[in-house]
Amino acid sequence: MDSDKINLELGCTTCTTQTTYSVPIGPVHPALKEPIQFTFRLSGERIVGVDIKPGYAHRGIEYMGMKRNLIQVLYLAERICGICSISHPLALTQAVENAAGIEVPPRAQYIRTIIGELERIHSHLLWAGVAAHELGFDTLLHLVWKVREKVMDLLEQLTGNRVDYAIPIYGGVRRDIPDEKAGLAYEALSYYKNLLQDMINAFLHDKSVAMRTSNVGVLTYDDAVALCAVGPTARASGVKKDVRQDMPYLAYADMDIRAITPEDYGKPVVGDVFDNIVVRLLEVDQSIKIIEYCLEHMPGGELTSIPKVAALLAVLKKADGEGIGRHEAPRGEVFHYIRLEAGVEAPVAWKVKAPTYSNLMSWVPKFMGDEIADIPIIAASIDPCMCCLDRATLVDQGGGEAVKLKEELVKLSREKTRRMCG
Question: Domain-by-domain residue ranges, the chain?
């Protein structure tokens, strides 16, 4: 992805007027948790340009999903990303329910919300530990990840799995949260409420963290809007964008959800890495309150509107139409599109847009003007997920520009998937 044009649009003319040299980082590098290629242009220690090339983790999941029935597709969606293993199924089930006209009982909506918010706590704590590691603060990494174990244990107690929870099903959920398990949830929430201020002190009141993150990796409000940033990346820049607020769904429709920005911590918005930390820590507190509300106001009733799998498959096979599903995942909005045709078990079309796709170009202004030593923490600041992001890779062996039409791209994707699947 050549970012020269966007560099110039953002006023980064230094990369064309100074003598620079290039430093490649990735696709395999100790600072990167997943493969992606950066090529930085440096003037001394200062970053004056960056090219970003994803595409190293493409697995052909969408194509494989179009060769399976919708129950099987649900398991594939859950494995797009282990950290977001409820986010993709939630968006997919909403899209299919929208296309097939399937209702979801209120109790199931609340259970989906609870698991989604527990995943947000888990994801934000995981990110906070990674951020501490990228700053060289491994003591804080181990502390945060020890704290994270509590929510992982709770998810296992509620669903049977620490990741890949297998909770949503079209029309509802697979498992209930009975009173005895609700008690375990309250215990975990109390644990986090008691520790939250300690976490805030460790990150936001530590001079070393502040010096390494303040005015580093700045994404202004205007750049966040222009580059269509989502999730904590956008909210850290003051953009009050949150699907739970803007288009309430599940149990969020019964609550007054508000997008969290650094102003909620009583500080002016800068849009730097420090503000990214602020937003994610405050969102942990918000998730605790959402889960408590759901547990206290849990409706009675059925877990699913179509309890038998055979009956569900029959309903899905008769469905004809298209639908979308949106969910505010921990990294931002995840979007699924599905198209069904009557008499066909598999979806005719399935398209996934993950938050990292929306946040990718936010890296350009974030990197610009900072020093090479800041690359790891700036890269981590958007909480990237390459497995969620990657959709296709195009290599032009001829060295010139290539334009591929839809038909040829589909053919190339199918050929690659067949090779990958043997």
Answer: 4-57+364-421, 61-357
Which CATH number is 61-357 given? 1.10.645.10
Report the candidate in 20, 77, 53, 12 with the shortest Cα–Cα distance to residue 352: 77
Predicted structure pTM score: 0.87
Distance CA 323, CA 30 (A): 40
Give the integer Cα–Cα distance in Å for 151 and 195.
13
Q: Report yes or no: 125 and 151 within 8 Å, Cβ to Cβ.
A: yes
Q: What is the pLDDT of residues 234-262, one digit of tens each?
A: 999 999 999 999 999 999 999 999 999 99
pLDDT at 333 over 90: yes
Cα dihedral 369, 262, 286, 250 sign: negative
- Single-letter amino acid, residue 374: D
The rounded distance, in Å, linking the Cα atoms of 329 and 90 is 9
Tell the burial category of 22 from Cβ atoms under 10 Å away from its Cβ (0-12, 13-18, 19+).
exposed
22 bridge partner residues: 41
Residues 73/61, Cβ–Cβ less than 8 Å: no
pLDDT at 327 over 80: yes
Give mean pLDDT, residues 298-314: 93
Q: Are 160 and 323 in contact (CB under 8 A)?
A: no
CA angle 154, 132, 88 (to 5 degrees): 45
Tokens 């398991």 — which residue?
A: 75
